Amino acid sequence: MIPLIAVDGPAASGKGTIARALGRHFGVPHLDTGALYRAVALAALRAGLDLANGAAVGAKAAALDLSLLEDPELRGAATGEAASRVSALPQVRGSLLAFQKAFAAQPGGAVLDGRDIGTVIAPHAPAKLFVTAAPEVRARRRFLELTSAGREVTEGQVLADIVARDARDMGRADAPLRQATDSDLLDTSELDIAAAVRKAVELVSRRLGRIS
Ligand code: C5P
Q1: Which domain-ending residue is among 71, 105, 139?
Q2: For residue 51, how far is its CA from the centre of ligand 1 (angstroms)?
Q3: Closest residue to atom 12 of ligand 1, CA basis
Q4: What is the mean pLDDT of each run of 10 residues along the chain (212 residues)?
């Protein structure tokens, strides 16, 4: 069975770390699809665009400057917030669709993480994980990540941000964040990274009919 793995979940659930580790374990390339939406957001912010202008922001997505994926601001809170706004625009989602589907169609398999991988980008994936954790746990993780990178934020701000992003990602009309019915749920609230990765490898191996 082709090792095509879909990993979805809310912000700071640990899905990115888990998806990268799955890529290494199963020897398949990994795509962080959130980075694509963040790059579009950054391009739109720098061009001073109205983030609700579907045509203008969609044009940025259609001609995406890939060097933005290496930009230090890509991981900033403001970029994440803007990414969750522009990702609600059908023009933006449409522009990024073909690239993501082509990545998923690689003959040797792939792992993609995001919000709609198991539902829209690769609904046929044999292995799907929905990674989640309590909002307070996710806020704590993101707070530690941001402050260790030298950013000045409070834990309360980060929690409010996460709750707002969850609501926006789950409430939008186009490809809302939701668990695919045929996915495995992995709650990382009580797990450290190593334990979460072990569990993910076990769940995916079972789906792919392999021994972990
Ligand atoms: O995963 P990350 O937090 O980097 O994603 C940033 C934003 O991009 C998310 O809040 C979400 O709104 C959007 N996104 C999406 N679909 C994906 C991946 C990310 O809408 N497949």
Answers
A1: 105
A2: 15
A3: 84
A4: 96 95 98 98 98 98 96 90 95 97 98 97 98 97 91 93 93 94 97 97 96 74
